[in-house]
Design goal:
Blueprint lengths: L19 E5 L20 H14 L3 E4 L8 H7 L8 E7 L5 H14 L4 E6 L4 H6 L6 H20 L4 E4 L4 E5 L13 E4 L3 H10 L2 E5 L3 H16 L6 E10 L3 H11 L5 H12 L4 H10 L7 E3 L2 E2 L12 E4 L1 H13 L2 E7 L3 H12 L10 H6 L5 H7 L1
Helix pairs in contact: 1-12, 3-5, 5-6, 6-7
Length: 391
Amino acid sequence: MSQPIQDTPPSQANPPASPEIFWFLPTSGDTRYLGTSDFSRPPENGYIRQIAITADRLGYDGLLIPTGASCQDPWVTAASLIAETKQIKLLVALRTSIMGPTASARQAATLDQALGGRLLLNVVPGGDATELAADGVFLKHDERYEAADEFLTVWRRILATDAPVSFKGKHLSVENARNFHPPVQRPYPPLYFGGSSPAAHDLAGKHVDAYLTWGEPPEAVAEKIADVRARAAKHGRQVRFGVRLHVIARETEEEAWADADRLISHLSDDDIAASQANMAKMDSHGQARMQALHGGRRDRLVVGPNLWAGVGLVRGGAGTALVGNPQQIVDRLREYQALGVDTFVLSGYPHLEESIRFAELVFPLLGKSAVTERSAQTGGAFDIRTRASAS
């Protein structure tokens, strides 16, 4: 059984403002347990819509729509949610290696108009050479970031001006490109981006509005933040920061750790070895950092106070989860906030139920309105603290 690392809660004096909390849309499928198909849920349109509508009514600030060969197309998914959601922002992948900057700029402007200014873009150069090759992209790691730099230079210019834009670079060239229908958000919808290599940090410092990192221990996140800040300063820019994490929040710490163990209870050693071997083939620096936290071993999964790396045994990308009771979860979020983080992109298995659970248990402690499952389904909301004081 996973054993929690003991910690000292941070001071509660002058708590920071409530952070932005995003949820995750599992467009490659959902499950209750990793390593078995017995409890899997396919990404059917009705289920994806249900999660999005629930997250919107619960009061989440944003919704990450992922990208990849196993995912449904993020742009089509986002378009399908235009009329279904009212307030939540949609964070949609901007694939710089397989999309063109001019057409994607027009797509972004149109989608932002349709969403009433609720579009966010997640810049993704790509980190899996095998998957990229299947899409016809054969650039090496740093070349992808060179291409992304050129892409974003053109993309930002097109949306920031009414004048024609021409550009000639190593990887792309355009002549007299224009966008005639501007987005609601000017000069363009905010750009989010995550990457751990020096090339990625350079790209973040030069172009993006918010830098995201997977959930590494706070000291590692602090180093990343300092580096990106320094690189942004060279361009006279400031960047916001966010952390991508899974969450297992329960009323008691014991329940939370028990459910963490249950989540991976169906994994065999062969499952873990095969997944780790596949992930090791990627040239993603962030993926390598995730794997280094646990080394593929079940006895190395607790990597910090309430920080557990079990998901990363078999899942690529964000592989860590905050595990604990509501106050412990908030304490850990506050630790990241103290570093300069103002956004958390969260998920949990299964995503529908966990979106409700997290909102009910943790939102009130963050100063956000809490919502019950019943009120989420009917569109109503109430603050648990207000209800308690009135009863």
